[in-house]
Amino acid sequence: MVRLSSLISTAIWIMQWINQAAAAGVRTVAVGDLHSDLNNTLTVLKLAQLVDDNTDWIGSDDTLVQIGGLVDKGPDTIAIIELFQKLAIQAGVTGGAVINILGEHEVYNLAGHYQYVSKEDLYSFKSKRIRVEAWKIRTGWIGRFVFKTFKAAYVHNKHTFFSNGDVNAFYAKLGAEGISNHAREALFRNRFTSTLFGKNGPVASRAYGAGSSSPENICKKVKEVKTILGVKRLVAGHIQQNGQILSLCNGTYLQIDVGISSSFVHN
Predict the structure, then answer these.
(1) Which of 25, 69, 93, 205 could crosslink 33 through cysteines, CB 3.0-4.6 Å?
(2) Residues 6+ apart with CB under 8 A from 214
(3) By CB neighbour count within 10 A (0-12 exposed, 13-18 middle, 19+ buried), where does 89 fall?
(4) Nearest-angstrom CA–CA distance, 229 and 153
């Protein structure tokens, strides 16, 4: 079971953002990496009052942003993909939205790299061949869903930029839509080694994580990127925190991967 502090930390931050937006009649809920853990995913979504006990959407016109790292490590890829497919449809009916960010682990699976896939998850597909077929971009039920709907970057309400990894000034100049378009083209052409997916790209970069540089240098880079993008804050996942959301640069950079999945040994 996930460590309770991780869920509480996530829920508190979710509710703070919800409360700040309540005056405008808008709720935005951002959730960190979930890594194929259906039970803990549902716990978080229920805490955020987005799903009911039947796992159906009750968020009305809320927006849910899942920061990437949806799959791998845990056992529930099939169930968690089916859940987000269903929620996206249900949210659209009520005026809400479910935004999935493309993360490093989604790219791994599209490329056929399964080094982070658990045995339980592989067995849930019955065989590796069936899993490979499911993740094919053009014909697979998961691959097509990820390719068509996941965004490598997303700006919400013109003030908050989301990406799984950290975005630098070079990629910021493309804008969120440009980054997503470049990612989609690279995936379509099977260019999985594109620099956009590499250690300096917005899908997998860890450039602003604690200890990567001095706080002053990190905040200088964050400010530059915010200025280029015209946003107030950057939100990322991918860099696992020890149960607490990392807030840097006076809250203008947030790292929200708090280790929700029970696949992590510290949970």
Answers:
(1) 69
(2) none
(3) exposed
(4) 11
Half-sphere exposure of 68 (CA within 13 A, CB side): 31
Supply the CATH number for residue 67's domain: 3.60.21.10
264 in any annotated domain:
no
What gap in Å lies between CA 135 and CA 174, rounded to an integer?
28
Domain that holds residue 106: 4-255
Phi and psi, residue 83, nearest 5° = -60, -50
For 75: left if phi > 0, alpha if psi spans -120 to 50, otherwise beta; the answer is alpha
Q: Which of 20, 8, 33, 11 is nearest to 163 (CA)?
A: 33
Buried b (16+ CB within 10 A) or exposed e, 152-173: bbbbbeeebbbbbbbbbeebbe
pTM as predicted: 0.91
Write the pLDDT tens digit of every residue in 27-66: 889 998 899 999 999 999 998 899 999 999 999 999 999 9
Non-local (6+) Cβ contacts of 153 within 8 A are 101, 161, 162, 163, 167, 171, 175, 176, 177, 179, 180, 202
d(CA 73, CA 249): 31
Q: Which residues, including other chains, have CB under 8 Å from residue 28's CB and lie 6 or more apart?
A: 17, 18, 21, 62, 63, 65, 156, 157, 160
